[in-house]
What we know:
The protein is of the alpha+beta class. It has helices spanning about 10-15, 25-30, 55-65, 70-75, 80-100, and strands at about 5-10, 35, 40, 45-50, 50-55. The chain has a three-stranded antiparallel sheet with strand order 1-5-4. A hairpin with a 2-residue loop joins strand 2 and strand 3.
Amino acid sequence: MTPEQRYLSPSEAAECLPKRPHPFSIIRWIREGVVTPSGRVRLDATKVGGHWMILADDLQKFIRRTTSGSLAVEKAVSPRVLRIQARDDRRRHRKAVAALQASGIMPKEQA
Length: 111
């Protein structure tokens, strides 16, 4: 059995996490999930003999999907917001170039 195939109880899963959430929090993540900017994310688990069991790999996937730097969060940005951000970036760039040219740090381009 590889580490990714190791099953954890909610208590064991809680011990693997930095802030040591209560095992009932782990069960809530299984049943209800966690709300993220990209939507609700549930922790995958299996019920065996009336007890929840979580694959270690599924716990890692859940952590990646719910952290702020995940791709799911990046996908939550609408195309309109991306266009506005790009437009603002171009404006800031033009202003910076103009300021550098005015101060003589950057030569003016020949047209």
